[in-house]
Design goal:
This protein is 79% helix and 2% strand. It is an all-alpha fold. The chain has a two-stranded antiparallel sheet. A hairpin with a 6-residue loop joins strand 1 and strand 2.
Length: 270
């Protein structure tokens, strides 16, 4: 009985949290379908906002820019953290505390401070390093560093990576080979979760990209900010579209991960 009651409470809590997250999107979507909402009920049903956006190549270019600036820093940061954790796990466990401090420093610094500091340092640097796209990608890597580090570290702690590498060495595998073929497949779920969190944070960024490269590389968030001055209906439609894109990205990653789990389970069964 207690387990059933506990399950019911968990289901109810899940429903409440789901409604809390979904209801604002639902009302935003409803508002995007009407010309005005000055009374209890909206008036003037229209699809002009979505027609305008889906036929506007400039909007989709900004979405592509946002995806590029989200995926590249996330992939680079994940690779750096994975290699750094390999060094800590295999060669220098004592460096773990130093690495943790370095990776958690961005928690205490606001994005606007990082953006202004980076821009002031690299604005007069040589051509490659003063490139605004290079600067924003590097800044994004720093900003998502705590989330990526913590997700990967928790996954490594949960599987006792050091013991698994020692066991693989006893069977004749090299350390790096064991790390790539044994450790990383076991923490791929943690890497995926950390990457999705980082991707969502970067995809929704406005402050840093506006300060560093707003006039050089327009993203979806900057496009949204400009449209907000013109039309509330269109800005709501943009918000809904961006939410759907983020949801689809998450669903695709989760599907690929589920397929990998199924293939791994079938291979073990064979």
């Amino acid at each position: 009985m207690q387990s059933k009651d506990h399950q019911r409470h968990n289901n109810l809590l899940t429903v409440v949290i789901g409604l809390y997250l979904v209801v604002p999107i639902i009302f935003t979507f409803i508002y995007s379908l009407f010309r005005q909402w000055s009374d209890i009920l909206p008036g003037g049903f229209t699809l002009e906002a979505y027609t305008r956006l889906f036929t506007d190549s400039g909007f989709w270019i900004t979405v592509w820019h946002s995806l590029v600036l989200s995926v590249i820093p996330t992939a680079v940061c994940a690779l750096v953290i994975i290699l750094a954790m390999y060094y800590v796990t295999v060669y220098n466990p004592g460096f773990a505390k130093v690495l943790q401090i370095l990776c958690t420093i961005p928690y205490a610094i606001q994005g606007v401070i990082i953006a202004i500091a980076v821009l002031s340092v690299y604005s007069d640097a040589p051509a490659f390093f003063s490139n605004r796209i290079f600067i924003i990608c590097g800044t994004y890597c720093v900003c998502i560093l705590p989330y990526m580090y913590q997700g990967i570290k928790n996954s490594l702690d949960g599987i006792n990576a050091g013991m698994l590498i020692d066991a693989a060495e006893m069977l004749g595998a090299g350390r790096f080979y064991a790390y790539c073929r044994v450790i990383i497949p076991n923490i791929i779920q943690g890497i995926t979760v950390a990457s999705l969190l980082s991707l969502a944070i970067l995809f929704g960024d406005f402050v840093m990209i506006n300060i560093i490269a707003g006039n050089y590389y327009t993203t979806a968030q900057i496009y949204l900010f400009r449209i907000m001055r013109e039309s509330g209906t269109v800005s709501c439609a943009i918000t809904v579209i961006l939410f759907c894109i983020t949801f689809l990205l998450t669903a695709v990653v989760q599907y690929i991960q589920a397929q990998n789990h199924v293939q791994s389970a079938s291979q073990k069964g064979e």
